[in-house]
Amino acid sequence: MVKIGIFGASGMAREAGDIAHALGLEPIYIVRDEVERDAWSYPGHIILESEVDRFSELSYVIGIGDNAARRKVAERFYKRVRFANLIHPSATFGREQRERLDHSVGVIVAAGVRLTSSIEVGNFVILNQNVTVAHDCEVGSYVHIAPGANASGNVHLGVGCWIGAGAVINQGTIGHKLTVGQGTVIGSAAVVIGDCEPNSVYVGVPAKRIK
């Protein structure tokens, strides 16, 4: 069986492992140190980060939900391993969208995700279960969209922003994409109807800045 390396020791890593199994791949989990290895209780082959160079034939993804932590791992290993995308077979794509996604690396697409058309996706993005992203959106690198969230058409999600479960990002226009700024957190079930400033927290219906 073809193997794939998955960095991480938490629930997101296990979910990435489930995607791997759905694709007929055998996951090998990479943990930071002996403490994480000894705490691991999920079935699967475990190695330490210090052992990665012995598995240079593998492709890798980063199953870490926290954007900042995922970015640190990506930057630490970008020149040492070959990163790939991990896409659940139930995910669906508009015309030529899957080919667009192939230009990115380290993207995890979970079960039930739908991407329509003309969407640009950066590197090391996580699109969690049942996320929908509509036409002409731009999803920056290191973004995490939590389960059930929806980005309507003409939306720009800045680098490292986090979209909470069930949140809705309303549609922008061709002339002005509705923008969620870099590093911003959108709370679960929030409804975003206007631009959101960088490095902020927005919650509620309609979403308002609280931090």
Which whole number gives the mean pLDDT? 96
Main CATH class of the largest domain: Mainly Beta
Proportion of residues in β-strands: 25-35%
What is the string of helix and strand elements?
EHEHEEHEEEHEEEEEEEEEEEEEEEE
What name is given to the CATH topology of the largest domain? Answer: UDP N-Acetylglucosamine Acyltransferase, domain 1
Please explain how this structure is put together.
By secondary structure, the protein is α/β, with parallel strands linked by helices. The N and C termini lie far apart (48 Å). The longest helix has 12 residues. An eight-stranded mixed sheet has the order 6-8-11-14-17-20-22-23, with helices on one face. A six-stranded parallel sheet has the order 7-9-12-15-18-21, with no helix packed on it. A five-stranded parallel sheet has the order 3-2-1-4-5. The protein has four helices and 23 strands. The radius of gyration is 17 Å and the shape is globular. The model has no long low-confidence stretch (mean pLDDT 96). Helix content is 16%, strand content 28%. It has two domains: 82 residues, 3-Layer(aba) Sandwich (Rossmann fold), CATH 3.40.50; 127 residues, UDP N-Acetylglucosamine Acyltransferase, domain 1 (3 Solenoid), CATH 2.160.10.
